[in-house]
Known about the structure:
Elements: E1 2-5, H1 6-11, H2 13-21, E2 26-30, E3 33-38, H3 50-59, H4 65-77
Parallel strand pairs: 1-2
Antiparallel strand pairs: 2-3
Amino acid sequence: MAHVNLAEAKALLSELVARAEAGESRQISRRGKPVALLSGLTPPRKPLDVAAMRALTDSMPERDAESVVLRMREEARY
């Protein structure tokens, strides 16, 4: 983890934030003592709508592997 003093952090804030978004972490020090940590955040995950997924799969035609393979073989003959 890289260290940067507070004065440099003020001058380079936009660059430090861009690096934090890219996954780098920076420790900010005042008078040689660490006082803060600048790191990126992970975006919140969108919850999965189970009811919508179930409705989608229920609306699909039912297919078993055997019927799919047989149909492919039949189509390939002609």
